[in-house]
Amino acid sequence: MERDDVLGNLVSELRRGTVVLGVLASLGKPAYGYSLIERLSGAGLSVEANTLYPLLRRLEGQGLLTSSWDTTGAKPRKYYALTDFGGEVLRELTRQWYATQHNLTNILGGN
């Protein structure tokens, strides 16, 4: 396998979990898919629509999100919101994120 392929695969693995955390953290208030893409991208975490929409469906299937259609505008939009369970999971993932960040900083020689 080529160096770039190996590195690309490892970066994809690393990003996969961070995208889930980023999506959950971005749903403090209900949002529709494209607005999530913009919000995440604006925060430096770019995600493609073909990654986001299946992820939203999976998170909804796991009970972390609910969705509802807003048909009052010219274009119907599906809004996603955190469930109470989703909020619990977000808090625990955030705690785990900071613990992992602290541990890796120590391993990598940071202070």
Describe this structure in words.
By secondary structure, the chain is α+β, with helices and mostly antiparallel strands. It has helices spanning 3-25, 33-42, 49-61, 84-107, and strands at residues 31-32, 65-70, 77-82. Strands 1-3-2 form a 3-stranded antiparallel β-sheet. It is globular and about 55 Å long.
List the helices and strands and how they pair.
Blueprint: H1 3-25, E1 31-32, H2 33-42, H3 49-61, E2 65-70, E3 77-82, H4 84-107
Antiparallel strand pairs: 1-3, 2-3
Label this structure with key terms:
single chain; 111 residues; alpha+beta; Arc Repressor Mutant, subunit A; three-stranded antiparallel β-sheet; 4 helices; globular
